[in-house]
Specification:
Layout lengths: L41 E2 L2 E2 L9 H16 L15 H6 L2 H4 L6 H7 L4 H12 L2 H5 L3 H14 L8 H17 L8 H13 L9 H6 L3 H5 L4 H15 L15 H17 L6 H13 L9 H16 L7 H25 L15 H22 L4 H5 L1
Antiparallel strand pairs: 1-2
Helix pairs in contact: 1-16, 5-7, 5-8, 5-9, 8-9, 8-15, 9-13, 12-13, 13-15, 14-15, 14-17
Bound molecules: adenosine-3',5'-cyclic-monophosphate (CMP), magnesium ion and zinc ion.
The site of magnesium ion has 3 residues, from loops.
Amino acid sequence: MGGLACRRVEPTGVGGVCACAMTCAAVATPPFPQNGPGLRPSFDGVDLLLLHRATPPAQLLQHMDKLGRELQSPPSETESDAWVEETPEVAALLAPESLNLWDFDLIKLDQATGGKPLALLAFALIQSFGLIERLKIDVDKLKKYLLAFERLYNPCLYHNPIHAADVMHAFCFLLRKGKLDLELEPEELLIALLAGPAHDLGHPGVNNALLIKQKHPVSVRFPTSVLENHHASLAEQLLERPDMDVLSFLDTKPDGPSRKVALRQLLKDLVLYTDMSLHGKIMDTLKEKEDGAATLDVKEPAERVVALQALLHAADLSNPCKKWEIHIQWTHAIVAEFFSQGDLERHLGVDVTPMLDRTLGCGRTSQKGFFVHFIRPLFITCAKVLPFVQDTCEM
Ligand code: CMP
Ligand code: MG
Ligand code: ZN
């Protein structure tokens, strides 16, 4: 940390010294605030947007019902959403000098777009790789597809369109830094980019374990990677609609149909590996390379997919690697969402998962565990086996 104070100070550190896994010596901040009404919504000088929010059990049950309906019939377009207007403020936020920053502030973009950050950001990112011209993508179909994504996200505290946009942004940043975009066929790159906004589509704000426990129809249809299969399936179903067929530029090519099948499979393979229960599998594959002192050969199709899966997964977990003011908002959002599921479990009369129980703690311990056991090892290993992203991952 080069003598700089660590911004991820673990307040339980002895004698005010940071007890985080990094080798730093920083002064501890005040304790992580309790979640609950009547408490000051700020931490470490940062206003917290979500500290006091909770999703009531009734609303989570509605999300779960909607999940069941989506499962029975593919989403049909009933509304014809207009493309979001790009105000000067939004245009400035989406300008390359802002868009190419690691610490791009999605929460600011959300506010500037009146709560619709996903479609605009996704379009700007796809454009930034020159894909619309290179592939001659039908812009109307792309816009419809992205608007449908925006609409299919529920207003969850964490798993909302802002998170989807954030993950797509971080993924693009890592791809570009890793020069991986240069190794992909343009249509492969397009599908990889779309996996970002697709990766949590229709998320109800509760986890796979509860859906399995409740025998929700989605868990009967997809017994493993329950939600991830559902996210991928929704994205695929939309892609099959003629008015959202973003891959229609392949129709005139002799191998068009088989290429479309392969690209849909790639979309699925990327979204499925955002399942945290597959984290160990990704790590094992990366570690195998690392142990052999080798790097991933991204010219090799199978290894290229592993590289994309690892980077999308890293992007999904990247919020604690952002600057403190951004990270703390996401942390409170995820903890608030976890506690809302805990409230629902109590409401349903099932055992409340300890990590989701607001009466047991304030989320600090789970945050430290998450950082030390998942995020840090993933980013360190990615840096070793994907040399181009080394600087970014070490940062
Ligand atoms: P999801 O985005 O579906 O996939 C990655 C998961 O990691 C995410 O859901 C959360 O369940 C979890 N996650 C992400 N960020 C954090 C965090 N800061 N603390 C704890 N869990 C997190
Ligand atoms: Mg997910
Ligand atoms: Zn996610």
